[in-house]
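From the shared-data thread, chain only:
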Amino acid sequence: AIRELGSMQLTVVAKRVVAPRHPLTDVHLRASTAPDSIKLEQLDFSVEDNPLKSSGEVQWEGSEAIFNARASITDFDVDRFLIRDPKRPRIPVSGTLELQSRGDRMAKLLENLTGHIELEASHQQPNPPISERRKLVFNARPLANGMEAKISTFQWGESELAADIRYVGTEPPLIDVTLRGGSVSLHPWEKLLDEPAPKPKKTDELG
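Structure, as tokens:
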């Protein structure tokens, strides 16, 4: 149904959009559709003063969908949504995401995934305290019969690991995970798991 929308253009500019848990502010949306094509030229917004810029596109060739997605963040406080311990520092991160794939079903999209995700502390100092480390380097590439994802660096506070993830498009699919050393600390997330999610405030504001 989405691919049959025809040709149209959509522009949305809103100071505030009510969303579950975290309202979006400074929303800028520009999108266009054509036969067998949807282009998200711009989707920019802020979550609690944390800006995110993104764009993407989906095209269809017969029954196969081809998608491209790009996003960038600057001084984004990811810890705000992950760590509830007020004694732990919240370290803003910056970085980029770029992913591409194609397929006629979700398994094929995963099998053909390629791209990267790179995040790191925005104002990283040499040899920072362990609690302030923030870095993620993720790369995905297609294989002859699946996809391989490499987490070459994951440093988040006390947690540090590297891993290879291989997805093989068999029936049923096979997922193989190889850890190449490191350790994971669950302490920063304990309060997040223990505390109930806050109830959204009632409001009639639409933006």
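The chain is about 10% helix and 55% strand.
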